[in-house]
Write a structure and sequence with these properties.
The complex is a heterodimer of chains A (210) and B (193). Chain A has 210 residues and is α+β, with helices and mostly antiparallel strands. Chain A is 28% helix and 25% strand. Chain A has 5 helices and 11 strands, in the order αααααβββββββββββ. In chain A, helix 1 (7-15) packs across helix 3 (34-53). The radius of gyration of chain A is 21 Å and the shape is elongated. With 193 residues, chain B is mostly helical. In chain B, helix 3 crosses helix 4. The chains are: A alpha+beta (210), B mainly alpha (193). Chains A and B meet through helix 1, helix 2, helix 3, helix 4 and helix 5 of A and helix 2, helix 3, helix 4, helix 5 and helix 6 of B.
Chain lengths: 210, 193
Amino acid sequence: MSHHPSEHLLTEFASGSLETGAALCVRTHLEQCHECSRLAEDLNVLGAVMMRSSDQASCSDELFDRVLDQLNSSPAPEKATGHTGDNRALSALIPGGITSVPWKKIASGVSSYELPVNDGEYNVKLLRVEKGRSVFQHTHTDTELTVLLQGGYSDELGSYIAGDFIECDGSHVHKPVAHRDQDCILLTAVSGKLHFTGAIARLLNPIVKY
Amino acid sequence: MMVMDMAEAQQLAGWLDAVASEQDKAAFKQLFDHYSGRIKAFAMKSPGVSGSATLAEEIVQETMIKVWNKASLYDRSKANVDAWVYTIARNVRIDIQRRNKKHDACIDADDLWQESDEPGPLVQLRQRQLADNIRAGLDDINPEQALVLKKMYLEGKSQREIAEEFGIPLGTVKSRTRLALARLKLLLQEKEL
């Protein structure tokens, strides 16, 4: 794996200011990338230091008692389950796993499934590109974040494998082609619109919504 | 200074252990006294709270209940208590911000921003050294860069929102963030820990 989220994106993630759709992509990458997980942990330490070094506010006297009351009525403390490595966020959206996804064909060799992430900013979906097939050449008016879940693809900018994280914006025009060995499955979050740039595909701009 | 911090870190971890193993309410009170004022100040700045002491105290309350409930999940070999409490308070704030924006919370903040399972006994030590570096660096960082970090971490603002607030290009916010991280020795290539 050689493509990672930028440091400023990881900082937004660690500070908790990243929108859900983008955070889902970052989380999915972190599951598979030790290096970025470690940086994200370090960026949490930055948050802890900042929280600590800012002022303190005094709390009302009865706040601790209110918390104690709640403890008595809240469920039993959580016990460690022993596995923290699953992608609980993605599993919550596709409980049956990737094999259960009800794909919808959107073009020859390309299907998609829209994930119910309503964060007011990103349109989030899974895309499946059959082996050797391609997505129309396109660019973005804003940001496109992609994490490869399975298989691989290449475009004008490089070659990507499972776990890779790709951040594109309006300065990138690309035509991803899935590698020939297996179908390629991507998690993608797009803010703004995709814009098809090929001669024929341009006609699709008003019609197709990736 | 370093020794004090170490003693304090051990003390906090000890209280948390007592909460986890014996549901020790006296130890929990110590943690509450240590963190509640900081969490409240942190919460007051968050956009959904907009200065409401009542709402800020709800964040304190919810955070401390999670500290109690999750105490047994805390692993002192993985994170220091400060960083652990920070992630809990941050997640509570995210959930409250989402509720305010009326956005569908189809995924719990805890699932998206879950604690990592980075292994290794050296993590505590590394994080403590890192925290020392950060503290030292924050004191003499460029004010514009510090402001960007503050907006993100303490006010929960995205880089896009920061760009809009100051009327500067998004690229400028991104580069200020990167320069700040470089100054704090947080970028991968600059770290020697």
